[in-house]
Fold:
Amino acid sequence: MLMSGCATVVMRTSLSGSEPKGLYPATRADVTGTMNYCQNQLDPTGFARGAGPTHHPNVVEKFLWVVFATIDLPISLVTDTVCLPFDLTEKKKMTKGEPGNAPP
Structure:
């Protein structure tokens, strides 16, 4: 349980290296991260292939990743739902601030 909530922490803090993008960022990170990891497109550290040491996860590593992601997914879903009003407000601000979408 110590690792649960890690996608939420990473996606909603400066640990991800960028601002949260879009709606439900932690939930999307859990799902896409698990899919990419199981297809050998991510290293165990979460970096894209080629960004870190070359390593092909074995069945046990894939199983553990899926277990932790399964534990983390409900936490991410609840946190993303609680943060939805903030995310919608930020999305609206970004849309209004883009060139060409400014109000007359």
